[in-house]
């Protein structure tokens, strides 16, 4: 069985909205072993949609359509489907009631124009929508089964998962299960990672190993295509283990796990508490840490000392040091980290960041992207004595990129430290 | 002239990557008055690509193709284009040199497999790539002009902007210029905004007015379609003025402007300086403010008091108040805002946030989404006296949503205050 995905909407074709439905459906189908031939994104044009439906029904046994089911004149998917099937539209009484009750529950009367949402081609069946007013449609054309779903991602996903996916049974004979997974790394560039992986990245290999980069995170994507789920899982795990071995501590998590997740987990496990002092990252490290639910076990809080005044008054950074070395210096990073730890007695460890994020403020000596990190740790038996390490980063990119990489580098350093791994894994340390 | 856009790549069809190239190209073409018939996303399959190229060339005078120009066996767009044109591939000597020098500049030798990137169908011409190794191709098939570009967004965008867009000349006679713009609001839901806009949102209207929501920001999208650029601009401006009038101070900016942009601009203009004290938002307000380049003129810094300890020790919140009212209370929000202002003498105004972001920590009295905001302002002639206002929010959604809306509400409140506008525009105030 093959599938084709159609997305309908002027806003998609005009580029006002990026189509995420097709990618989501493509991934769901792949994991069920149903390969997708193509995606097709169409304007709200009845003839063009009808032609695309006929074209798709000729080339695949499964056609998934999203969008164009709203109540307005621009919503033409119903009519186009009827045209492609060469039949008329009829009203579904149960659907009228369902749309009516959707409005009644919200204390409103159904606008007359919503009645059009109960229309469907003769010979097709209605798919209930539990999350909105637009019911879906299931129809047959030639050898193809066609499912039409609303374009609103939340409604589409629920309808597909609950009512359409369970009906899909790929032919047992030619079934190819495709399983994918993702391992995330931070601290080295894509080409360094590729060198480390070597022959594992051979294009002919199955499972296939590839890399993608997003905001400095290099993700290793694994894709296993095998006749059975068991075999695909087994092979995926095996390749994942090999990838892990090559990358060591650079890899911090699977799928959607973030560096902050990994750090909060490690701190919690060791019963340690962190405090932060941020200048150029301006709260980004705090934000990343507190994105993690339950982070208050591991994270006490911190300062955003975006001005010299706050560095001096709140963290006891010496005016002399600021004058002599500048706010972006090893001395000041160290003083910020130690000041934070001194002020919060129950904290065990602190992170401090000071740097030049740009676009202005760079000098020949300290260009944009110059960032000093410091990590201070309270000595066990001498709570007023700190063991402090610093690292100078030379980051590239715009303001957002410098801030993002600086914050992630700080989290990765702390993580490496907690795992007794060397800091020099971080490639952009100077 | 009409256009069709094809995107090539297994990763797109499988949903591992969301296709953003098509939306970007669709928007560029729309602003030049070239309507797009459809986007087509295709797997790395030579026959399917060739068929789609023929299909597109039959239906549009302009076909834009991205992807499938890399050096590996999976990259089949060149061959498929030659198939569609019914010709052979030839090597372009200048391109071999260009690819070679791309590697030489990086101190590496050209891998032999990159030579394939200099191939192009007989009768087509090469488009230079100044940002990567894959040259583009311009070809003619029937009445259609076809441009093939690399799939890497950065390379594709540069090639299109610099070398392809200047060659596009829509037929003067039937030209329809489509101009779009976006006005951003925060503080009311989409349906409230729709009610305020009323007949301006009529679907038949030109310029057309629609709304989209993203992370609590309701954006009003305007789309003007007219024979000339002048007329489209004039009409767009006129409708924008009407929209502005209906929405008043809820609207904070155009296009990509953020609430933080608007706040930093207002503070800078009035010569005022802000300090923050964040609990549940955990640095998100700081992060948003310091996302803005040059924000240090207006933003001094702040505290992330993620623990009661930090609230007490750094902001002088009374232990009694925490015990009696809880950390999420009007009293504590007020104490945080005033404590921040007391500690930073040069600051004129402070924002404080304390709330329950979830997923845990909610109670029947204070469910997840309960957030107290406070804003303190230093009295002009009495620097130790503060004028403080508070607001209780009842937010819905998950942890990310509660934190995001709380931070944006705080920024919008400050903005309204700076503009002498009433706070009750914020719809989710309790």
Concise summary:
The structure is a homodimer of 430-residue chains. With 430 residues, chain A is of the alpha/beta class.
Q: How would you describe what is shown here?
A:
The structure is a homodimer. Chain A is about 35% helix and about 25% strand. By secondary structure, chain A is an alpha/beta fold. In chain A, helix 9 packs across helix 10 (about 285-290). In chain A, strand 16 and strand 17 (about 385-395) form a beta hairpin. The first copy, chain A, is built from 14 helices and 17 strands. Chain A is elongated and about 85 Å long. Chains A and B meet through helix 1, helix 2, strand 2, helix 3 and helix 10 of A and helix 1, helix 2, strand 2, helix 3 and helix 10 of B.
- The termini of chain A sit apart by 54 Å
Greatest chain-chain contact? A-B, 81 and 81 residues
Structural class of chain A: alpha/beta
Radius of gyration of chain A: 28 Å
Q: What is the CATH topology classification name of the largest domain in chain A?
A: Maf protein
- Shape designation of chain A: elongated
Widest sheet of chain A: strand order? 2-1-3-8-7-6
Provide the fold topology:
Two copies of one chain form a homodimer.
Chain A: E1 3-8, H1 10-13, H2 21-31, E2 36-42, H3 46-59, E3 62-66, H4 77-85, E4 89-91, H5 93-105, E5 119-121, E6 125-127, E7 136-141, E8 144-149, H6 153-164, E9 177-185, H7 190-197, E10 208-214, E11 217-226, H8 229-247, E12 251-254, H9 259-270, E13 274-278, H10 284-290, E14 299-304, H11 308-315, H12 319-325, H13 330-343, E15 349-355, E16 370-378, E17 386-394, H14 399-418
Parallel strand pairs in A: 1-2, 1-3, 3-8, 13-14, 13-15
Antiparallel strand pairs in A: 4-5, 6-7, 7-8, 9-11, 9-12, 10-11, 15-16, 16-17
Helix pairs in contact in A: 3-4, 9-10, 9-14
Domain MoaB/Mog (chains A, B): 4-170
InterPro entries (chains A, B): CinA, CinA-like_C, CinA_C, CinA_KH, Competence-induced_CinA, MoaB/Mog-like_dom_sf, MoaB/Mog_dom
Pfam families (chains A, B): CinA (PF02464), CinA_KH (PF18146), MoCF_biosynth (PF00994)
């Amino acid at each position: 069985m093959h599938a084709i995905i159609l997305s309908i909407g002027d806003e998609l074709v005009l580029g006002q909205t990026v189509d995420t439905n097709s990618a989501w459906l493509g991934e769901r189908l792949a994991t069920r072993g149903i390969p997708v031939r193509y995606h097709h994104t169409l304007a709200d044009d009845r003839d063009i949609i009808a032609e695309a439906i006929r074209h798709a029904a000729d080339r695949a046994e499964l056609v998934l359509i999203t969008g164009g089911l709203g109540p307005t004149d621009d919503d033409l998917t119903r009519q186009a489907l009827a045209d492609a099937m060469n039949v008329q539209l009829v009203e579904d009484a149960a659907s009228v009631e369902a749309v009516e009750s959707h409005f009644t529950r919200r204390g409103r009367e159904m606008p007359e124009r919503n009645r059009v949402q109960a229309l469907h081609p003769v010979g097709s069946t209605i798919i209930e929508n539990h999350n909105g007013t637009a019911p879906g449609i299931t129809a047959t054309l030639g050898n193809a089964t066609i499912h039409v779903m609303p374009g609103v991602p939340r409604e589409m996903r629920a309808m597909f998962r609950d009512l359409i996916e369970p009906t899909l049974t790929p032919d047992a004979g030619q079934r190819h299960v495709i399983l994918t997974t993702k391992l995330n790394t931070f601290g080295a560039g894509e080409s360094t990672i590729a060198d480390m992986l070597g022959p594992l990245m051979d294009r002919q290999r199955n499972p296939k190993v590839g890399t993608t980069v997003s905001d400095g995170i290099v993700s290793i994507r694994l894709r296993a295509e095998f006749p059975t789920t068991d075999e695909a899982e087994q092979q995926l795990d095996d390749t994942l283990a090999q990838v892990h071995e090559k990358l060591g501590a650079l890899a911090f998590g699977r799928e959607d796990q973030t560096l902050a997740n990994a750090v909060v987990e490690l701190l919690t496990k060791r019963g340690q508490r962190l405090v932060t002092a941020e200048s150029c990252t301006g709260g980004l490290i705090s934000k990343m840490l507190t994105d993690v639910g339950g982070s208050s076990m591991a994270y006490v809080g911190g300062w955003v000392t975006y001005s010299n005044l706050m560095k001096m008054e709140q963290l006891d950074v010496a005016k002399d040091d600021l004058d002599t070395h500048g706010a972006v210096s090893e001395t000041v990073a160290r003083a910020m980290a130690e000041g934070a730890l001194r002020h919060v007695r129950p904290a065990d460890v602190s992170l401090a960041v000071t740097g030049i994020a740009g676009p202005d403020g760079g000098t020949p000596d300290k260009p944009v992207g110059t960032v000093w990190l410091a990590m201070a740790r309270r000595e066990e038996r001498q709570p007023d004595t700190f063991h402090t390490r610093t690292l100078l980063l030379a980051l590239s990119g715009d303001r957002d990129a410098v801030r993002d990489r600086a914050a992630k580098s700080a989290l990765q350093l702390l993580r490496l430290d907690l795992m007794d791994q060397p800091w020099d894994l971080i490639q952009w340390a100077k």
